[in-house]
Every structure is written in structure tokens, then in C-alpha cells.
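Side project, low priority. Logging it here so it doesn't get lost.
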Amino acid sequence: MRRVSKIAAAGIATAALALSATACGSTSSQKDSGSSSSSTGGKGVKIGVAYDVGGRGDHSFNDSAARGIDKAKAEFGGSVKELTAKTTDTEADREQRLTDLAGAGYNPVIGIGYAYANSMKKVAGKYPNVTFGIVDSVVEGPKNVDNIVFTEEQGSYLAGVAAALKTKTNHVGFIGGVDVPLIKKFEAGFNQGVKDTKPDVKVDNQYLSHGSDTSGFASPDKGKEAAQGMLDNGADVIYTAAGSSGTGAIEAVAGKKGAWAIGVDSDQHEQASLSKYKNSILTSVVKNVDIGVYDLIKSIKDGKPLVGTNSYPLAKGGVSLATSGGYIDDLKSQLDAAQKKIVDGSIKVKTTP
């Protein structure tokens, strides 16, 4: 195995394609909520996937990963088995899910989300000949893990710039799924982008669940209620980083004339299931999980498994701001200037609020 500390060349080559892909690509395996599904395609890579809560079809984080899986399956053949987390999962449940995949001969085994970190550390040590991948966390210890991480705060900073420039009420909002360090990176970047652009703009921040309660990532009703509360208090641009809960927030914003929603992870303006709300989706902070997932699977096929920590920053297309709909075209010069400063280091984006 080869250890790397920077983005793989394959990821750079596929970034442009990932940016233009639809947010829920065609699938070679069917989603089975809370359970598993598989599809066999002869010789090729046997891909084992453990999704976060919401799974394939969440229109956000998991769907971004699914695009990379679908692309790899289409190119390399083989088989895919998908398991999906439940909001009631214990650590033992996550450990068993990864063990089931590794024990059945799937390689790589990919955990979509930081919640798999502790269980992956245990399971990877038991299966040294299997390459594991984890998105949004770094597993210390085992040498057979590809840690796929992104600079969410950088994309969120750009969203903050856009929000500050678009608000008419000088009042915007951020909704996070769960108050964990990962989601606080989104909050920190967004708040900094707003304040650096217009210091007098008020920012409301709210989380849908706390600690080990991951329901905030899969509760559209909670997202809608939180967004409605912010709208009622005067906010007219709301950025939500909360998995499928974000669909509820977008629905609430769409019901308020002149208000804007900012999506996350996938380009939510291009989601077919959200098409009736697309005129209210200002932009989305796209996190190209598909690139990292595809790179890992390709490395297995090539016989040179990626391990170590692979970072996908703004400079390498790991995160970006979607331009679908043309609603931020008038902000291009300001956004380009902010992006340049982030890339050259003139702006240091915070990772904690």
C-alpha cells in the first residue's frame, strides 16, 4: 500500500465531472433503509459501503458518496453492497456493520461519516488485508485506512459571502444537523464569511440535535421548523448543513417570498425531488465526497490502495460553490476575490465558531 498526504491525481482529473453530475446518480444497487442491498456484476471491485443516517437518497451527503460509487461501478464492474445506519445505532451496531462487509470479502469497505471512526479503528485492525475508507474523520492507528477529509469551512465561507451580499434584511441563519466538530466547521466558515463581508449582518445559529443523537441529520420536520422560526424572526437567507433535514428547511424558505436557501454537500438546485423549490435555492456548498470515494475504489482496482490522510480542499476542487440557476452570477467578482484569498492564504478560515 502507498501512503499519501495530498489529493490523488485521479481526484483532480474527475473534479470537473463531479461538479456537473446530478445530485443523485443512477444506481447499481437499491437502497434498503436500515438494512442492506447488493448487486453483482461479475469480475471487478467488491465495494462495501456503510452509509450514514439517511442513506442513499438523502439528497445531500450520502448521495454525494453514492455518485462516486456509481461511477466506479460503471467503470470497473464488480459488486456493491450497501448498508445504512439508523438514528438508534450503537457503537456495536456500527462495528457489526463494518465487520459484516469486511468478513464477506468486500474491499474496500467505506464508512460514510465521522460516526464510523471508533468502530473502523477496531475492525480495520482485525482485517489488515482489507482497505477501509472513512469520510470526514481520521482514524489513528491502523495502516489500512484511507481518511478522506474536506475543508468544509472554506466552502461555507464563500456561502457566507454570498448570504451577506444577498440579504435584504441584514439577517441570515445557519442550521446544523448535530452540534459536533464537523458541523461546527460549516458554522464557523459561514459566520466568518458573513462578518468579513458585512459586519452588521445578524447571524442566527441553531442545531437540530445534540451529542450522540444523530436524528438532526434525518428529520426534515425539524429542519422546516427551525427555518420557519428564523424566517419569522427576520432572516431571509438560511444555510443548512443537516443531511436530509435540509430538505425541510428548503421547503420552509420556498414558502417565504424573497427568501433564499443555501444547500449543502450536493448541488440541491439540481435535485429532481427538490425541483419545485429550486427558484429559492441561491447556491449550495458542494462537498465532492464522490471524488474521494471514487479515488479509493480506483486505487484498489489499480492494486495500489490509497491509505493515510487525503485532503480535498477548495484549491483542489474538493469543495465549491454551485452556480446552478445563475442566482449568484452577479456576485462573481466578490466570490472570486474571496476564493483567491483563501487559496493563497490571505484569509485563514476558522474551523470552530
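Brief comment: Residues 181-197 form the longest helix (17 residues).
Revisit when time allows.
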